[in-house]
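TEACHING EXERCISE
Course module: macromolecular assemblies
Task: Read the component lines below, then compare them to the predicted structure of the full complex.
Student: A.B.
Group: 4
Components provided:
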Amino acid sequence: MGSQVYVNGKEIENPHEFHHHVAPKKQYVQVLGALLVLTVLTVAVSYADLGPLSLPVAMLVAAVKASLVCAFFMHLKDDDRFNVFVFVGTLLFVAIFFSFTLFDLGARNAVNDEQKTFEYWNDEAAAGNALKVGVDHVPEKAAALKAAHAGGHGDGHGGDHGDAKAEGHGDAKAEGHGDAKAEGHGDAKAEGHGDAPAGEHEAKAPANHEAPGGH
Amino acid sequence: MAHHPAHADHAPEPDYIRAKKGIMSWLVTVDHKRLGLMYLASVLFFFLVAGILAIALRTELFTPGQDFMSAQTYNKVFTLHGAIMVFLFIIPSVPAAMGNFLLPLMLGAKDVAFPKLNLLSFYVFSVAAIMFISTLVMGSIDTGWTFYTPYSTATGGAATMAVFAVFVAGFSSILTGVNFVVTVHRMRAPGQTWDRLPLFVWAIYATAVIQVLATPVLAITVLLLGLERIFGVGIFDPALGGDPVLFQHFFWFYSHPAVYIMILPGFGIISELLTVHSRKHIFGYKAIALSSVAIAIISFLVWGHHMFVSGQSELAGIVFSFLTFAVAVPTAIKVFSWVATLYKGSISYTTPMWYGLMFLWTFTIGGLTGLYLGTLSIDVHLHDTYFVVAHFHYVMVGGTVVAFIGGLHHWWGKMTGKMYNEKAGAIGALLVFVGFNGTFLTQFFLGHQGMPRRYYAYLSEYQFLHQISTIGSWILAAGLLWTMIYLLHSLWYGEKATGNYWNATSLEWHTQSPPIEHNFHDTPHVTGSPYDFPEIDKSGATH
Amino acid sequence: MSTTSHGSGQHEEYPPYLAHHFDTMGQQAGAAKLGMWLFLATEILMFSGLFLAYFIIRYFYPDMMLSAHEFLQKEAGALNTVVLLISSYTMAMAVRAAQTSNTPSLKRNLLWTLLCAGIFMVVKYFEYSAKIEHGMLPGRFYEAHYHGYELVGLPHIFFAVYFTMTGLHGVHVLVGMGIITWIYIRASRGDFHSGNYIAVENTGLYWHLVDLIWIFLFPLLYLVR
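Instructor-supplied answer key:
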């Protein structure tokens, strides 16, 4: 009985069998080829404007690639069924996590201000109000940056990113940067940053949108 | 059958405690039994620490005004009480401490599947504990154990450290969970099919599955919260464009299943205690076993019931409320089966049995009041009151801790080789029962009358109930201290435990007490159910 | 429960790489592999939180995501995708070499994998430095609007998501490089052959998972419009 293995309480005749499968080299090469082709495909598709379809298409291609990696590189195709079960089961729980959370976020009809978190900022932007971005939440740092870049911006940072800006995104509606009048800097205008009325967003923000204590 | 064949053909082997000597032999041990004991010592230490904090809280609440704690201090103390109890005591208590010790023994295996990983898990847990304790000197935390945003992104103190401590503790929990799932799948003794597993193993298995599936989401949640505090990433913080309710989704996707990480192992212990001490085959073996798995799965579908008044959508609230009731079904199956097990059993009133019976009472109250809170409309009224506090203490203390103490008595001789004093045990159980119900039964009434939780002061109309509750907590503390004293006393002066002092049948009783280093002299072969008590089979109910 | 005891003569042919508490290599390898799959499950669930955060941000701030993602270098992302796919292939070949007891091929393929991982990290380094230079930093550190970049909405969230996702993925690549190095050292000692290769296989599984996550990260962050 020395070499017997008991899986699930039952004797297994040939315990080595369930993980000993050597696939031919050619198969690996083919899978790699398929993965590279799919990569080219997904990049190519990203240049064609598919509109609302672009996310599902990209996810579909990624899912096919992932399945290839799982089935062949990770040997799930010939593996113990239970490992497949673990993997698929995991995806099921990911699906539960995603679907319930997204369901709630989608179903919120903002009965009160607390529920408006995301809409609040979109409404602000749509109303043409300046949004407080990034470093503007740290007044001291923002002031220092403002001083450093007072001579106008674009200083040497054109480079490869310059053209991205010209692609017609961000046509200026919401770019006013939460500006610094509240912090006592009168030079906001000189910088050419959005000059939305100072402090307006603070004034409008419902109390719950302001984390207490400042940062 | 109750007796293992004599070991006459074996040379006497030292037990696992005496097998190796020196402090290093403990620090680098990969023996699951020694690791179980090390976990046990750690979690009991944290139980003591958090228990002292609880008594301090209750004592502050003896009078309506401020006694010896300011509001700020009170916030810090209840946060620390909750966080230590949850992350450093209850979650590792039964799975990591007793599970480690018992699982391989019950499976007839020499060790868990990955002994070194087990040791690593213990040290990861220790690091988490040290990180947590270090928050005390870094300014403490005052967020509550749930770390709700946006307060947790804005408050000062050591919240970042605490959050990363939870992250590390989660790792330990994951490693233990992976280890146990694999152990149950691959390390069972010959003949031990799924329907011959002790129910404790089923419970630990279901727990381990939850640990594996839920804890990673906690890890990413607290990681994001830590990053939110350091970088202000703007996912949870509304001031930066995030959604604080999203944090609650992330948090409760872990923490609701975590409630079952805490209670399922308790269920497992109770299944063992009630059968062994009533000498009766468990009623509805399959139902109890599968209901553990059902609870594990359903527990992932109900997290939104913590968020009924948090700003989640009304529709989601309705759906989560409906699904919440589904949990009651497998849980009720268990309770009914336990009661049916006792029916016409030959009950011996040992200390483990007292705790088993206490569990049936307190857990049932805890479970049923959960249905009140799961009802959307009633929860709007009861949310964030003492009713909630009472409910989860009935489940966590009245359920898990009571089962844990009962199990500790049941397997004390197996673990340590010494027997505790039965009379002392009965006195302790009585004190715990009176103290516990005195503390928390009153809180249902307080909550129903509108006393909100987490306040250091209150209106004088609540004083009477608060004082009963505080006095109850002192009795509870006395009971637990008494228990600690006589258990420690037994280590030096207790009677020697025999190999099978309860005449029980599962595999851990087929080796000596305490077991030898490799658990069994010979690999046991299993041919029947772990609950076939011979005297019942023959003649009905004689003891 | 009835039990019967059998003689304990099962240790006759105990290979040195078989741990004491297992009976056979098959049991040991099966346990190790199941353990690895469970660990991968935890990894998937952990990353799923980040993906969910991404989808939510994208759902609520579509214009911001579109404008901000244009500042990522598609070419660098594509190059890294190809590099990681090739490394996945060489890793699979390494496992195959171990299965067939071909130690020289095993070592060679491990080195190729390490090289690809190294290239990945170097490309990542250049990408990160470009972002940092232009002030496109996560959250409260975001200052690109002082460098002359006008992005729609709240771009600091996009860069926070970008740095968190790629950063956590990068940490996994670094850990993977460490493990592969360790496996390489063990392979040089001649530890692996057709009877004992589970460590190589598990390393491979981990490495493929790192690839798998990148397969989703790449289109989501760099491509989707």
